[in-house]
Each structure stands twice: as C-alpha cells, then as structure tokens.
Amino acid sequence: MRLRSPIEPMLAKAVADFPPGRPGAWRYEPKFDGFRGLALVDSDRGVHLQSRRGARLTDTFPEIVWAVFEHIPARTVLDGEIVRWAAGQLDFSALHRRNIAGRRRAASLATSEPCHYAVFDVLKLRGRDVTGLPLHERRALLEGLFTTIPSAGVLALGLQTTDEAEARTWYETLAVAGVEGLVIKPTRSTYEVGARGWLKLKRRTSMDAVVGGFVGSPLRPSGLILGRYDDAGRLRVVGRTTQLAAQAAAEVAPLLTPARAGHPWPETLPPGWASSPYGGSGPITYTQVQPNLVVEVLVDSALDGGRRHRHAVRYLRPRIDLDPASVVESCEAAG
User: What is the pLDDT of residues 84-135, one digit of tens each?
Assistant: First the structure.
C-alpha cells in the first residue's frame, strides 16, 4: 500500500462564542500558532510530510520526519500542527526561518531550533481508514498509539478536553504563550476531507495603533497600515487592517493627513511586514500619511517576532482623543 499525497485536511470555520450543547457534545483543543501538517507513512516506512495546501515539508522539518519514522507504524496518516516552543512561547518566526532555509540549513536548524509535531487526529492506522469513525473513537486510537511514544520527544499528543470549564480556562490563560484560541469539534463527527466541519474560536483583544499609511484611494482607503512606538521612540510597523467597510472608510478618510518629508517608514514595505502572507511576490505598496491618527483595532495573539501581527486586524473606531506618542508597545511585545 502506498499512501498518496496531497491529502486535503478537514478545516474549521470561525465562530464568535462557545457553541451550545449538552456536556460531552463538544471536544476542545488549543489552537496553536504553527504550520498545519499531515504525516503519511507508507508500507515501506517512507515518511512524507505535507502542509495544509499540499506543499512538501519533508525536507523542511527533518527532526519530525525522523520521529514519525521511528515511532509511527507503516500505512498510517496523522494530522497535527508543527510548532516551535521557545522559552514558554510559540515562535512562529522560527517556523518561517525553517520554511525559507535550504535543505542543508534546515538540518542545522533542526538541532539549534528543534520543532515539535502536536498530533490531534488520525486518518489511517496500519492501513485501516478510520476517517468514518466518530472523533471520540479516533481519539481513543490516537491515545493508544501514543502510549509507547516518549512524552518528552518531538511527537506530542495534542491536548483535548470535553470539559467546557477547562476549555474556557485554556482560552483565557494560554494566549500569553501564543495560543490563538480553541478548535471545537463535535464529539461524534467523522473526518470529512476538505470540509469545514470544525469550529475555531479565536481570542481577540482591542488595542490602539497609529496609522502610518493606507492602501486604496485617499477618498476610499481599503486598509490601514498600523504602527506603535517602541521604547526608543521609533514608530514600528505592527500590521494592517482587513478590508474596510464603506462606512469605516468614509469615517477614517477625512482624518488622514498627507505625509511630509521624513516619514519613519520606507516607501514600500517588505513582504510579511504588514500582516501579509510570507512568500509574497514583492514589496507592499501603500500611501504614507502623517502618523497623527490613533485607531482602535481588534487583534488576535499571533505575532511575528513578538511585534508584528501576523493576521490582519479588524478596524473598530478612530481614537481622536489619544496622543499618538502615547501608543507605546510594551517590552513584552517588542521582544
């Protein structure tokens, strides 16, 4: 039997709150800020590691491939999250460094910045297709598989609970470590390839940011480029907003002042600097404005390098009552 890649994983849709249901109806898992990864072990024990979109990750994370080869039986497919823990924090920047490293450098980083594979589901086990089993039965199989795997190794059994109170504690307390929120799954759900049958509840908080530029037209900006001052008084780019609604664009456009000479940012921004996906085709073009407008935005906990928000943030309202110089990032945020 030779397992074929790519496999389209099951996905989750965003929700704003915990879903209703009787006790035990849902299973809750921390939503780690990492790379989704499926591990396939062939009948000849060949290991293939793929991303959510089917890209080959086998050479990118050799320590995970080796751990899967050593501990996972042939003709098995696992689903999980590739993460890097450093000093009690999830470090997405390390994953990015690994992603752009060549094969030789990836092998070196596997020693200096080792990653882990947090496994939360099983699709095939020793040649048996188990996607049609309910989640609680697949979880039992997965827990049985991990009884012989060292707890301090590269492979980790993902956390899961049926206790909503415990899940709410995770939701409130794990954000400081870079956990984005929760993935919530029906206990009796099967694994539906490509379907959005799970739920994701992200923990979001509001923060103030200084507008340093925009994309779109001056009369109808489609997004704002945001910054915060560091302890040295430098305005640092921290992200960009999602697409502005018509009402929000009309509200903020009159408050934007054309930039004068000496703007603190370059005329174009490198890919990834403003909540844009890594691997973009070129610099981010935008229109600079005087950094004299503060806005309130809604953010999640996914940070790049401890400062920039990796996901686009949601615009809430202007804060014309605030002095931009007072919008200073904390030492923890600065990294």
Answer: 988 888 888 788 788 888 888 888 999 999 999 999 999 999 999 999 999 9
Does the annotation mark 31 as catalytic? yes
Supply the DSSP symbol for 87. Answer: T
Which ranges constitute the DSSP H helices of the chain? Answer: 62-71, 92-100, 103-112, 135-145, 164-173, 246-252, 331-334
Structure tokens at 214: 């925009």
Q: Cα(first)–Cα(last) distance of the chain, in Å? A: 48
Report the share of the chain in percent with pLDDT over 90. Answer: 63
- Cα separation, 243 vs 285, whole angstroms: 16
Cα distances (angstroms) measured from residue 247 to each of 70, 240, 241: 56, 18, 15
> One of 31, 124, 185, 202 is an active-site residue; which one?
31
**Which residue type is seen at 317?**
R
Q: Which CATH architecture has domain 11-202?
A: 2-Layer Sandwich (3.30)
pLDDT of res. 162: 97
CA distances to 110, 154, 208, 218, 294 from 84, rounded to whole Å, are: 10, 10, 29, 41, 34
Residue 1 has pLDDT above 50, yes or no: no
Distance from C-alpha of 109 to C-alpha of 295, rounded to nearest angstrom: 39
Take residue 255 and report the two structure tokens written for it. 């408050």
Q: How many beta carbons lie within 10 A of that of residue 205, not counting itself?
A: 10
Q: Which two tokens stand for residue 2?
A: 């030779």
pTM: 0.73
Q: Which CATH number fits domain 205-334: 2.30.40.10, 3.40.190.290, 1.10.10.10, 2.40.50.140?
A: 2.40.50.140
The whole-angstrom separation of Cα 130 and Cα 125 is 7
Contact 233, 326 (CB under 8 A): no
Dist CA 47 CA 65 (whole Å):
6
Asked if 14 and 149 touch (Cβ cutoff 8 Å), the reply is no
**Nearby residues of 132 by Cβ (< 8 Å), 6 or more positions away:** 190, 191
